[in-house]
Protein backbone atom coordinates (compact mmCIF):
# COMPACT_ATOMS: atom_id res chain seq x y z
CA UNK A 1 0.00 0.00 0.00
CA UNK A 2 2.70 2.47 1.06
CA UNK A 3 4.92 1.52 -1.88
CA UNK A 4 2.03 1.75 -4.34
CA UNK A 5 1.24 5.19 -3.10
CA UNK A 6 4.83 6.30 -3.43
CA UNK A 7 4.85 5.08 -7.03
CA UNK A 8 1.66 6.98 -7.84
CA UNK A 9 3.08 10.17 -6.32
CA UNK A 10 6.31 9.70 -8.31
CA UNK A 11 4.41 9.23 -11.59
CA UNK A 12 2.34 12.34 -10.88
CA UNK A 13 5.39 14.45 -10.09
CA UNK A 14 7.26 13.24 -13.18
CA UNK A 15 4.26 14.03 -15.39
CA UNK A 16 3.84 17.49 -13.84
CA UNK A 17 7.52 18.36 -14.22
CA UNK A 18 7.52 17.05 -17.80
CA UNK A 19 4.48 19.14 -18.74
CA UNK A 20 5.98 22.28 -17.21
CA UNK A 21 9.26 21.53 -18.98
CA UNK A 22 7.58 21.12 -22.37
CA UNK A 23 5.59 24.29 -21.78
CA UNK A 24 8.71 26.27 -20.77
CA UNK A 25 10.73 24.89 -23.70
CA UNK A 26 8.03 25.73 -26.23
CA UNK A 27 7.93 29.40 -25.20
CA UNK A 28 11.68 29.77 -24.59
CA UNK A 29 12.36 31.36 -28.01
CA UNK A 30 9.74 34.10 -27.59
CA UNK A 31 10.88 37.67 -27.10
CA UNK A 32 9.75 39.11 -23.71
CA UNK A 33 6.11 40.21 -23.92
CA UNK A 34 5.56 38.27 -27.15
CA UNK A 35 3.68 34.98 -27.55
CA UNK A 36 2.31 32.80 -24.76
CA UNK A 37 3.93 33.29 -21.34
CA UNK A 38 5.83 30.35 -19.87
CA UNK A 39 5.39 28.81 -16.43
CA UNK A 40 8.13 30.97 -14.94
CA UNK A 41 6.35 34.16 -16.02
CA UNK A 42 3.02 32.82 -14.72
CA UNK A 43 4.64 31.94 -11.40
CA UNK A 44 6.06 35.48 -11.11
CA UNK A 45 2.63 36.98 -11.85
CA UNK A 46 1.03 34.57 -9.37
CA UNK A 47 3.50 35.67 -6.71
CA UNK A 48 2.58 39.29 -7.28
CA UNK A 49 -1.17 38.60 -7.25
CA UNK A 50 -1.00 36.42 -4.15
CA UNK A 51 1.13 38.96 -2.30
CA UNK A 52 -1.90 41.25 -2.15
CA UNK A 53 -5.01 39.30 -3.12
CA UNK A 54 -7.62 41.57 -1.54
CA UNK A 55 -6.74 45.06 -2.81
CA UNK A 56 -9.49 47.17 -4.32
CA UNK A 57 -8.57 50.01 -6.68
CA UNK A 58 -12.00 50.61 -8.13
CA UNK A 59 -14.28 48.58 -10.41
CA UNK A 60 -11.68 47.44 -12.95
CA UNK A 61 -8.81 46.71 -10.60
CA UNK A 62 -9.46 44.31 -7.75
CA UNK A 63 -7.29 41.58 -6.23
CA UNK A 64 -7.85 37.98 -7.33
CA UNK A 65 -8.93 37.05 -3.81
CA UNK A 66 -11.82 39.53 -3.96
CA UNK A 67 -12.81 38.25 -7.41
CA UNK A 68 -12.83 34.64 -6.22
CA UNK A 69 -14.85 35.58 -3.14
CA UNK A 70 -17.41 37.35 -5.34
CA UNK A 71 -17.78 34.22 -7.46
CA UNK A 72 -17.94 31.93 -4.43
CA UNK A 73 -20.61 34.17 -2.86
CA UNK A 74 -22.81 33.89 -5.97
CA UNK A 75 -22.14 30.19 -6.08
CA UNK A 76 -23.10 29.74 -2.42
CA UNK A 77 -26.45 31.52 -2.77
CA UNK A 78 -27.51 30.01 -6.10
CA UNK A 79 -26.30 26.54 -5.20
CA UNK A 80 -27.86 26.50 -1.73
CA UNK A 81 -31.29 27.59 -2.96
CA UNK A 82 -31.14 25.23 -5.95
CA UNK A 83 -30.15 22.31 -3.70
CA UNK A 84 -33.03 22.93 -1.29
CA UNK A 85 -35.55 23.20 -4.13
CA UNK A 86 -34.12 20.18 -5.95
CA UNK A 87 -34.07 17.94 -2.86
CA UNK A 88 -37.61 18.93 -1.82
CA UNK A 89 -38.99 18.47 -5.32
CA UNK A 90 -36.97 15.29 -5.82
CA UNK A 91 -38.42 13.73 -2.66
CA UNK A 92 -41.97 14.63 -3.72
CA UNK A 93 -41.44 13.18 -7.20
CA UNK A 94 -39.70 10.11 -5.82
CA UNK A 95 -42.60 9.36 -3.49
CA UNK A 96 -45.27 9.84 -6.14
CA UNK A 97 -44.68 7.68 -9.23
CA UNK A 98 -47.59 9.28 -11.13
CA UNK A 99 -46.33 12.80 -10.52
CA UNK A 100 -42.81 11.69 -11.44
CA UNK A 101 -43.99 10.37 -14.79
CA UNK A 102 -46.04 13.50 -15.39
CA UNK A 103 -43.22 15.92 -14.62
CA UNK A 104 -40.38 13.91 -16.16
CA UNK A 105 -40.90 15.06 -19.79
CA UNK A 106 -40.54 18.69 -18.68
CA UNK A 107 -37.41 17.90 -16.72
CA UNK A 108 -35.97 16.12 -19.74
CA UNK A 109 -36.63 19.19 -21.92
CA UNK A 110 -35.27 21.68 -19.39
CA UNK A 111 -32.20 19.66 -18.38
CA UNK A 112 -30.13 19.94 -21.59
CA UNK A 113 -30.59 23.72 -21.85
CA UNK A 114 -27.36 25.53 -21.10
CA UNK A 115 -27.97 27.61 -17.98
CA UNK A 116 -26.50 30.59 -19.85
CA UNK A 117 -29.35 30.48 -22.37
CA UNK A 118 -31.64 31.76 -19.63
CA UNK A 119 -29.47 34.82 -19.05
CA UNK A 120 -31.36 37.25 -21.34
CA UNK A 121 -34.67 36.31 -19.72
CA UNK A 122 -33.23 36.78 -16.24
CA UNK A 123 -31.68 40.12 -17.18
CA UNK A 124 -34.96 41.29 -18.71
CA UNK A 125 -37.16 40.18 -15.80
CA UNK A 126 -35.06 41.04 -12.74
CA UNK A 127 -32.90 43.81 -14.27
CA UNK A 128 -29.95 43.09 -12.03
CA UNK A 129 -26.92 41.41 -13.53
CA UNK A 130 -25.61 40.11 -10.18
CA UNK A 131 -28.84 38.30 -9.39
CA UNK A 132 -29.10 37.10 -12.98
CA UNK A 133 -25.74 35.36 -12.50
CA UNK A 134 -27.02 33.82 -9.26
CA UNK A 135 -30.04 32.51 -11.16
CA UNK A 136 -27.75 31.00 -13.78
CA UNK A 137 -26.02 29.12 -10.96
CA UNK A 138 -29.44 28.09 -9.69
CA UNK A 139 -30.39 26.68 -13.10
CA UNK A 140 -27.08 24.89 -13.54
CA UNK A 141 -27.15 23.17 -10.15
CA UNK A 142 -30.84 22.25 -10.10
CA UNK A 143 -31.14 19.32 -12.48
CA UNK A 144 -28.44 16.88 -11.34
CA UNK A 145 -29.57 17.11 -7.70
CA UNK A 146 -33.24 16.87 -8.67
CA UNK A 147 -32.74 13.84 -10.90
CA UNK A 148 -30.51 12.05 -8.38
CA UNK A 149 -32.80 12.75 -5.42
CA UNK A 150 -35.86 11.44 -7.27
CA UNK A 151 -33.86 8.38 -8.36
CA UNK A 152 -32.60 7.79 -4.83
CA UNK A 153 -36.06 8.06 -3.28
CA UNK A 154 -37.72 5.85 -5.92
CA UNK A 155 -35.16 3.15 -5.21
CA UNK A 156 -35.52 3.09 -1.42
CA UNK A 157 -36.13 -0.52 -0.43
CA UNK A 158 -39.75 -1.13 0.39
CA UNK A 159 -38.80 -2.78 3.66
CA UNK A 160 -37.58 0.52 5.11
CA UNK A 161 -40.81 2.28 4.16
CA UNK A 162 -42.79 -0.64 5.55
CA UNK A 163 -40.98 -0.38 8.86
CA UNK A 164 -41.76 3.35 8.92
CA UNK A 165 -45.42 2.55 8.21
CA UNK A 166 -45.62 -0.07 10.96
CA UNK A 167 -43.99 2.28 13.46
CA UNK A 168 -46.54 4.88 12.32
CA UNK A 169 -43.86 7.55 12.14
CA UNK A 170 -45.02 11.10 11.53
CA UNK A 171 -44.30 12.40 8.03
CA UNK A 172 -41.51 14.61 9.39
CA UNK A 173 -39.77 11.75 11.19
CA UNK A 174 -40.33 9.49 8.20
CA UNK A 175 -38.63 12.13 6.01
CA UNK A 176 -35.73 12.91 8.33
CA UNK A 177 -34.98 9.43 9.67
CA UNK A 178 -35.90 7.14 6.83
CA UNK A 179 -36.34 8.76 3.41
CA UNK A 180 -33.51 11.32 3.42
CA UNK A 181 -30.87 9.08 5.03
CA UNK A 182 -31.84 6.18 2.78
CA UNK A 183 -31.50 8.35 -0.32
CA UNK A 184 -28.54 10.36 1.00
CA UNK A 185 -25.83 8.63 -1.04
CA UNK A 186 -27.72 9.34 -4.28
CA UNK A 187 -28.57 12.89 -3.21
CA UNK A 188 -24.95 13.73 -2.39
CA UNK A 189 -23.83 12.26 -5.70
CA UNK A 190 -26.24 14.71 -7.35
CA UNK A 191 -24.99 17.59 -5.21
CA UNK A 192 -21.46 16.75 -6.28
CA UNK A 193 -22.30 16.87 -9.99
CA UNK A 194 -24.26 20.08 -9.40
CA UNK A 195 -21.45 21.98 -7.73
CA UNK A 196 -19.15 21.05 -10.60
CA UNK A 197 -21.53 22.33 -13.25
CA UNK A 198 -22.31 25.44 -11.19
CA UNK A 199 -18.62 26.29 -10.92
CA UNK A 200 -18.27 25.78 -14.68
CA UNK A 201 -21.26 28.03 -15.39
CA UNK A 202 -20.27 30.88 -13.07
CA UNK A 203 -17.14 31.71 -15.10
CA UNK A 204 -19.09 32.07 -18.32
CA UNK A 205 -21.92 33.98 -16.62
CA UNK A 206 -19.51 36.47 -15.11
CA UNK A 207 -17.83 37.01 -18.46
CA UNK A 208 -21.22 38.12 -19.73
CA UNK A 209 -22.35 40.27 -16.83
CA UNK A 210 -19.02 41.92 -15.98
CA UNK A 211 -18.39 43.82 -12.78
CA UNK A 212 -16.85 41.33 -10.35
CA UNK A 213 -16.03 37.67 -10.18
CA UNK A 214 -13.31 35.37 -11.43
CA UNK A 215 -14.98 35.00 -14.85
CA UNK A 216 -15.01 38.76 -15.29
CA UNK A 217 -11.39 38.85 -14.09
CA UNK A 218 -10.36 36.40 -16.82
CA UNK A 219 -12.10 38.46 -19.49
CA UNK A 220 -10.76 41.76 -18.16
CA UNK A 221 -7.18 40.45 -18.10
CA UNK A 222 -7.64 39.19 -21.66
CA UNK A 223 -8.66 42.71 -22.65
CA UNK A 224 -5.49 43.94 -20.92
CA UNK A 225 -3.56 41.25 -22.81
CA UNK A 226 -2.27 40.08 -19.41
CA UNK A 227 -2.08 36.39 -20.35
CA UNK A 228 -0.07 35.50 -17.25
CA UNK A 229 -3.04 36.60 -15.12
CA UNK A 230 -5.44 34.66 -17.35
CA UNK A 231 -3.41 31.47 -16.97
CA UNK A 232 -3.07 31.91 -13.23
CA UNK A 233 -6.82 32.53 -12.93
CA UNK A 234 -7.47 29.33 -14.90
CA UNK A 235 -5.30 27.39 -12.47
CA UNK A 236 -7.06 29.02 -9.50
CA UNK A 237 -10.47 28.08 -10.93
CA UNK A 238 -9.31 24.49 -11.27
CA UNK A 239 -7.94 24.32 -7.73
CA UNK A 240 -11.09 25.75 -6.20
CA UNK A 241 -13.14 23.27 -8.20
CA UNK A 242 -11.07 20.47 -6.66
CA UNK A 243 -11.64 21.86 -3.16
CA UNK A 244 -15.40 22.15 -3.67
CA UNK A 245 -15.55 18.58 -4.93
CA UNK A 246 -13.38 17.31 -2.08
CA UNK A 247 -15.73 18.93 0.46
CA UNK A 248 -18.70 17.09 -0.98
CA UNK A 249 -16.62 13.93 -1.22
CA UNK A 250 -16.16 14.08 2.55
CA UNK A 251 -19.89 14.62 3.03
CA UNK A 252 -20.63 11.63 0.84
CA UNK A 253 -18.31 9.42 2.89
CA UNK A 254 -20.01 10.56 6.08
CA UNK A 255 -23.50 9.79 4.80
CA UNK A 256 -22.62 6.51 3.11
CA UNK A 257 -24.07 3.33 4.56
CA UNK A 258 -24.02 -0.30 3.62
CA UNK A 259 -26.40 -3.11 4.45
CA UNK B 1 -60.81 -17.58 21.71
CA UNK B 2 -60.00 -16.14 18.32
CA UNK B 3 -57.24 -13.60 18.57
CA UNK B 4 -56.25 -13.18 14.94
CA UNK B 5 -58.82 -14.17 12.37
CA UNK B 6 -57.90 -14.55 8.70
CA UNK B 7 -61.39 -14.37 7.23
CA UNK B 8 -61.55 -15.82 3.70
CA UNK B 9 -58.81 -13.64 2.31
CA UNK B 10 -58.05 -13.57 -1.40
CA UNK B 11 -55.35 -11.64 -3.17
CA UNK B 12 -54.67 -11.09 -6.84
CA UNK B 13 -52.16 -8.90 -8.58
CA UNK B 14 -53.34 -7.44 -11.90
CA UNK B 15 -56.00 -10.14 -12.27
CA UNK B 16 -53.64 -13.03 -11.47
CA UNK B 17 -54.71 -14.81 -8.33
CA UNK B 18 -52.02 -15.42 -5.71
CA UNK B 19 -54.28 -17.25 -3.29
CA UNK B 20 -57.96 -17.27 -2.59
CA UNK B 21 -60.28 -18.00 0.28
CA UNK B 22 -57.59 -18.44 2.93
CA UNK B 23 -59.27 -18.85 6.30
CA UNK B 24 -57.77 -19.76 9.66
CA UNK B 25 -57.39 -18.22 13.04
CA UNK B 26 -54.66 -17.96 15.60
CA UNK B 27 -55.21 -18.00 19.34
CA UNK B 28 -53.48 -15.69 21.74
CA UNK B 29 -49.97 -16.94 22.55
CA UNK B 30 -49.99 -19.43 19.70
CA UNK B 31 -46.86 -19.90 17.58
CA UNK B 32 -47.54 -20.48 13.92
CA UNK B 33 -45.23 -21.28 11.05
CA UNK B 34 -46.28 -20.96 7.43
CA UNK B 35 -44.42 -23.19 5.04
CA UNK B 36 -44.80 -23.18 1.28
CA UNK B 37 -42.92 -23.09 -1.99
CA UNK B 38 -41.55 -19.80 -3.11
CA UNK B 39 -44.13 -17.49 -4.66
CA UNK B 40 -47.11 -19.16 -3.03
CA UNK B 41 -48.08 -16.00 -1.16
CA UNK B 42 -46.70 -16.43 2.37
CA UNK B 43 -45.23 -12.96 2.46
CA UNK B 44 -48.25 -11.47 0.74
CA UNK B 45 -50.54 -12.89 3.41
CA UNK B 46 -48.22 -11.60 6.11
CA UNK B 47 -48.20 -8.17 4.47
CA UNK B 48 -51.98 -8.18 4.49
CA UNK B 49 -52.03 -9.04 8.20
CA UNK B 50 -49.49 -6.28 8.78
CA UNK B 51 -51.79 -3.88 6.92
CA UNK B 52 -49.15 -3.07 4.31
CA UNK B 53 -51.26 -4.54 1.53
CA UNK B 54 -55.01 -4.72 1.07
CA UNK B 55 -56.75 -8.05 0.41
CA UNK B 56 -58.69 -8.33 -2.84
CA UNK B 57 -61.48 -10.03 -0.93
CA UNK B 58 -62.10 -11.01 2.68
CA UNK B 59 -60.55 -9.40 5.72
CA UNK B 60 -58.38 -9.81 8.77
CA UNK B 61 -59.68 -9.27 12.29
CA UNK B 62 -57.40 -8.74 15.28
CA UNK B 63 -59.01 -8.80 18.75
CA UNK B 64 -62.40 -8.12 17.23
CA UNK B 65 -61.27 -5.16 15.11
CA UNK B 66 -60.74 -5.27 11.39
CA UNK B 67 -57.26 -4.38 10.18
CA UNK B 68 -57.25 -1.39 7.87
CA UNK B 69 -53.60 -0.31 7.97
CA UNK B 70 -50.23 -0.93 9.55
CA UNK B 71 -49.81 -0.49 13.29
CA UNK B 72 -47.50 -1.19 16.17
CA UNK B 73 -49.74 -3.96 17.47
CA UNK B 74 -48.44 -6.06 14.56
CA UNK B 75 -44.68 -5.79 14.32
CA UNK B 76 -42.87 -7.40 11.41
CA UNK B 77 -39.25 -8.48 11.28
CA UNK B 78 -38.34 -8.12 7.62
CA UNK B 79 -35.53 -9.71 5.69
CA UNK B 80 -33.16 -6.98 6.90
CA UNK B 81 -34.50 -7.56 10.43
CA UNK B 82 -36.30 -4.21 10.12
CA UNK B 83 -33.11 -2.31 10.79
CA UNK B 84 -32.14 0.97 9.19
CA UNK B 85 -28.56 0.45 8.01
CA UNK B 86 -27.67 4.14 8.45
CA UNK B 87 -28.54 4.06 12.16
CA UNK B 88 -26.63 2.60 15.07
CA UNK B 89 -28.03 -0.26 17.13
CA UNK B 90 -29.09 2.24 19.78
CA UNK B 91 -30.80 4.59 17.32
CA UNK B 92 -32.59 1.70 15.63
CA UNK B 93 -34.15 0.56 18.89
CA UNK B 94 -34.80 4.16 19.92
CA UNK B 95 -36.80 4.73 16.75
CA UNK B 96 -39.16 1.95 17.82
CA UNK B 97 -39.30 2.97 21.49
CA UNK B 98 -40.13 6.55 20.58
CA UNK B 99 -42.78 5.36 18.16
CA UNK B 100 -44.31 3.10 20.81
CA UNK B 101 -44.21 5.75 23.52
CA UNK B 102 -44.44 9.19 21.92
CA UNK B 103 -45.20 10.82 25.28
CA UNK B 104 -42.02 9.66 27.00
CA UNK B 105 -39.18 12.04 27.77
CA UNK B 106 -35.88 11.63 25.94
CA UNK B 107 -34.25 10.35 29.11
CA UNK B 108 -36.85 7.73 29.77
CA UNK B 109 -36.67 6.61 26.14
CA UNK B 110 -32.87 6.30 26.34
CA UNK B 111 -33.18 4.34 29.57
CA UNK B 112 -35.56 1.85 28.01
CA UNK B 113 -33.49 1.54 24.85
CA UNK B 114 -30.54 0.56 27.02
CA UNK B 115 -32.73 -1.96 28.81
CA UNK B 116 -33.67 -3.59 25.48
CA UNK B 117 -30.05 -3.56 24.32
CA UNK B 118 -29.03 -5.36 27.53
CA UNK B 119 -31.98 -7.72 27.24
CA UNK B 120 -30.81 -9.09 23.88
CA UNK B 121 -27.20 -9.24 25.04
CA UNK B 122 -25.80 -6.50 22.84
CA UNK B 123 -24.37 -4.34 25.62
CA UNK B 124 -21.29 -2.60 24.24
CA UNK B 125 -22.44 -2.74 20.61
CA UNK B 126 -24.85 0.21 20.93
CA UNK B 127 -22.82 2.50 18.67
CA UNK B 128 -22.32 -0.06 15.90
CA UNK B 129 -24.25 -0.02 12.69
CA UNK B 130 -26.03 -3.19 11.50
CA UNK B 131 -23.40 -3.74 8.80
CA UNK B 132 -20.81 -4.26 11.56
CA UNK B 133 -22.90 -6.97 13.26
CA UNK B 134 -23.29 -10.66 12.56
CA UNK B 135 -26.59 -11.96 11.22
CA UNK B 136 -27.60 -13.30 14.61
CA UNK B 137 -26.81 -10.02 16.33
CA UNK B 138 -28.83 -8.08 13.77
CA UNK B 139 -31.71 -10.41 14.34
CA UNK B 140 -31.58 -9.73 18.06
CA UNK B 141 -31.64 -5.97 17.44
CA UNK B 142 -34.69 -6.53 15.25
CA UNK B 143 -36.38 -8.56 17.97
CA UNK B 144 -35.59 -5.87 20.52
CA UNK B 145 -37.16 -3.22 18.26
CA UNK B 146 -40.22 -5.37 17.82
CA UNK B 147 -40.71 -6.06 21.51
CA UNK B 148 -40.81 -2.33 22.27
CA UNK B 149 -44.46 -2.25 21.31
CA UNK B 150 -45.34 -4.72 24.02
CA UNK B 151 -46.58 -3.24 27.21
CA UNK B 152 -43.73 -2.27 29.52
CA UNK B 153 -45.19 -4.55 32.18
CA UNK B 154 -44.44 -7.67 30.17
CA UNK B 155 -40.95 -6.54 29.33
CA UNK B 156 -40.13 -5.46 32.83
CA UNK B 157 -38.80 -8.90 33.54
CA UNK B 158 -35.82 -9.20 31.24
CA UNK B 159 -35.29 -12.89 31.96
CA UNK B 160 -38.77 -13.87 30.87
CA UNK B 161 -38.58 -11.70 27.79
CA UNK B 162 -35.30 -13.02 26.58
CA UNK B 163 -36.54 -16.54 27.15
CA UNK B 164 -39.55 -15.78 24.98
CA UNK B 165 -37.43 -14.32 22.27
CA UNK B 166 -35.00 -17.18 22.17
CA UNK B 167 -37.28 -20.14 22.66
CA UNK B 168 -40.55 -19.13 21.06
CA UNK B 169 -39.32 -16.97 18.25
CA UNK B 170 -35.83 -18.21 18.47
CA UNK B 171 -32.42 -17.73 17.13
CA UNK B 172 -31.30 -19.54 13.98
CA UNK B 173 -30.07 -22.43 16.11
CA UNK B 174 -33.61 -23.04 17.35
CA UNK B 175 -35.42 -22.66 14.04
CA UNK B 176 -33.58 -23.94 11.01
CA UNK B 177 -35.30 -21.45 8.75
CA UNK B 178 -33.91 -18.49 6.96
CA UNK B 179 -35.82 -15.77 8.65
CA UNK B 180 -37.38 -14.08 5.73
CA UNK B 181 -40.22 -12.63 7.69
CA UNK B 182 -41.48 -12.88 11.20
CA UNK B 183 -44.48 -11.19 12.59
CA UNK B 184 -45.21 -10.44 16.18
CA UNK B 185 -48.54 -9.48 17.45
CA UNK B 186 -48.78 -8.54 21.07
CA UNK B 187 -48.91 -12.11 22.24
CA UNK B 188 -48.44 -14.31 19.25
CA UNK B 189 -45.76 -14.88 16.77
CA UNK B 190 -46.14 -15.90 13.20
CA UNK B 191 -43.39 -16.62 10.82
CA UNK B 192 -42.83 -17.38 7.19
CA UNK B 193 -39.65 -18.53 5.66
CA UNK B 194 -38.02 -21.06 3.46
CA UNK B 195 -35.87 -23.75 4.92
CA UNK B 196 -32.21 -23.03 4.42
Can you give me a brief rundown of this structure?
Chain A has about 260 residues and is mostly helical. Chain A has helices at about 1-25, 40-50, 65-95, 95-110, 120-125, 130-155, 160-165, 170-210, 215-225, 225-255.
Identify the notable features of this structure and list them briefly.
heterodimer; A: 259 residues; mainly alpha; 10 helices; 80% helix; B: 196 residues; alpha+beta; Rossmann fold; four-stranded mixed β-sheet; 6 helices; 8 strands
Tell me the layout of helices and strands.
The complex is a heterodimer of chains A (259) and B (196).
Chain A: H1 2-27, H2 39-51, H3 64-95, H4 97-110, H5 119-126, H6 129-154, H7 158-166, H8 171-209, H9 214-223, H10 227-255
Chain B: E1 4-13, E2 16-26, E3 31-34, H1 42-50, E4 57-62, E5 65-66, E6 74-77, H2 89-100, H3 106-119, H4 135-147, H5 152-155, H6 158-168, E7 177-185, E8 189-195
Parallel strand pairs in B: 3-8
Antiparallel strand pairs in B: 1-2, 1-4, 4-5, 6-7, 7-8
Helix pairs in contact in B: 2-3, 2-4
Radius of gyration of chain A: 23 Å
- The parts of chain B where pLDDT drops under 50 for at least 5 residues are 151-180
Give the % helix of chain A.
over 70%
Q: Report the β-strand fraction of chain B as a percent range.
A: 25-35%
Average pLDDT of chain B, rounded to a whole number, is: 78
Low-confidence stretches of chain A: none
How would you describe the overall organization of this protein?
The complex is a heterodimer of chains A (259) and B (196). Chain A has 259 residues and is mainly alpha-helical. Chain A has 10 helices and no strands. Chain A starts with a helix and ends with a helix. The model of chain A has no long low-confidence stretch (mean pLDDT 93). Helix content of chain B is 32%, strand content 27%. Chain B is built from 6 helices and 8 strands. In chain B, the strands form 2 sheets. Chain B has a 4-stranded antiparallel β-sheet, covered by helices on one side. A 4-stranded mixed β-sheet of chain B has the order 3-8-7-6, sandwiched between helices. The longest helix of chain B has 14 residues, at 106-119. The radius of gyration of chain B is 17 Å and the shape is elongated. Classes of the chains: A mainly alpha (259), B alpha+beta (196). The A-B interface holds A 157, 159-160, 162-163, 165-169, 177-178, 181-182, 184, 255, 257-259 and B 47, 50-52, 69-72, 74-76, 78-80, 82, 84-87, 95-96, 99-100, 129-131.
